[in-house]
Amino acid sequence: MVLVYSDDKKLALELLNKASELGKELHKRVIAVTIGHEEYSTEYLECGADLVIVAETSQHQFKAEEYTSILENIMKEHRNEIILIGSNKNGKELAARLAAKLDAGCVMDCTKVYVQDQKLTTERIVYSGNAIAVEQFTSLPQIVTIPSKVFDPLPKNPHHKGEIVKKKIDGEPFPSKILNVQETKSEGVNVEDAQIIVSCGRGFKKKEDIRLVNELADILKGRTVGCSRPIAADLKWLSEDHWIGLSGHKVKPKLYVACGISGQIQHIAGMRDSGVIVAINKDPEALIFKSADYGIVGDLYEILPKLTNAIKGKIS
Q: Which of 9, 54, 138, 262 has the most CB atoms at less than 10 Å from its CB?
């Protein structure tokens, strides 16, 4: 069986797409697990799960030790061979703990998962995006974590047949306790769900000039501004909510406009799956042009105002 779990519902729905594909190819059922969220179960069924297990537990807040124990109990009962886990902060910790307890292989942050030579095969970006590692499992169970935006959710099918089972599962108690959870302050920017993103890079001379990007984003009705690592991490002109790249956010908009971004592989890794990529840079040899569908060579301080006015004239 193929098991799917993520504490992020959107990510779980994305994983169900790949799980359904593997299930069909290997003739295995797909099991989706939700811990404490019965309201997700119907949607999981409609998006490809053959069985949804609702784990009812007194541990209502994510705690790696207890959640690992819950998944371990489910896996032992259903003899799951492939486990797909969402590769967010909680998922990575959960997958590593589960692999250690089961003495299982575990590959993190996979961008491709498929069967080759009758073995589960994965691909993931390594060496800061300079290479792709291809790895195969040689034993069971097989644990894979997958980041968001790698796969699209399947269209909902209300006629998909499946079963929802509720189980009272309290994992083994552990002495550690969660004393306090403090939410990270956010500017309310969600670049991961944006359909149009205009991003800025080190080509901008000062913080105030980012208004040029904001103006273009507003005209494009995107209103979402992204940035490369130096803008968020080094100069701190924008918060990390805007940071797109290997260590930032992975995005998949329909349109991505890169302004003054050189195109280092760390940034490309975060936006390479965009529908249409437009690059603006004064250096004709900038790496960003190799990933762009359209390139404009020139000074962004001249191009951005003209581009914004030209689009404004077309849509007014």
A: 54
**Count of residues in the chain:** 316
Amino acid, res. 26:
L
> Which runs of E-coded beta strand occur in the chain?
2-5, 30-35, 51-56, 82-86, 105-107, 110-116, 119-126, 131-136, 142-146, 163-168, 196-200, 225-227, 255-259, 276-281, 294-297
Pairing of strands 119-126, 110-116: antiparallel
Task: Please name each of the domains of the chain with its CATH number.
Answer: 2-168 (3.40.50.620), 191-315 (3.40.50.1220)
Q: Is 253 helix (H, G, I), strand (E, B) or coil?
A: coil
Residue with tokens 């209502």: 60
| Model pTM score | 0.83
How far apart CA 114 and CA 187 sit, in angstroms, is 38
CB-side neighbour CA atoms (13 Å) of 290: 9
